[in-house]
């Protein structure tokens, strides 16, 4: 099941793509991220992930900075 493994967004390396499968958090968190385009089925690309601190992702042709704690609550399926 290797390629079907669901991981947190924070685990994607720069240049990797993922498909959003779940957001875990309160209604405020889920609502804010959904408004930015993080909805199940959305495609996201990791732009910058230094392994600590905030990271930058691209979704809907827009680059968005997320805190690492936020990225750890967004679950994606890695795309090959």
Description of the structure:
The chain has 80 residues and is α+β, with helices and mostly antiparallel strands. Helix content is 16%, strand content 40%. The protein has two helices and six strands. Strands 1-6-2-3-4-5 form a six-stranded antiparallel sheet. A hairpin with a 2-residue loop joins strand 4 (55-59) and strand 5. The chain is globular. The two termini are 13 Å apart. The model has no long low-confidence stretch (mean pLDDT 94).
Distance between the termini: 13 Å
Structural domain tally: 1
DSSP strand content: 35-45%
Total strands: 6
CATH topology: SH3 type barrels
CATH homologous group name: Ferrous iron transport protein A (FeoA)
The arrangement of helices and strands along the chain is: EEHEEEHE
Largest sheet: 6 strands, antiparallel
Unreliable runs, pLDDT <50, ≥5 residues?
none
Count of DSSP-assigned helices:
2
**Form type:** globular
CATH class: Mainly Beta
What structural category do the secondary elements indicate? alpha+beta
Query: What percent of the residues sit in helical stretches (DSSP H or I)?
Result: 10-25%
Strand order of the largest sheet: 1-6-2-3-4-5
Would you identify the CATH architecture? Answer: Roll
Characteristics:
80 residues, SH3 type barrels, 6-stranded antiparallel sheet
Concise synopsis of the structure shown:
With 80 residues, the protein is an alpha+beta fold. The chain has helices spanning 27-35, 68-71; strands at 6-8, 17-23, 43-48, 55-59, 62-66, 74-79.
Topology:
Layout: E1 6-8, E2 17-23, H1 27-35, E3 43-48, E4 55-59, E5 62-66, H2 68-71, E6 74-79
Antiparallel strand pairs: 1-6, 2-3, 2-6, 3-4, 4-5
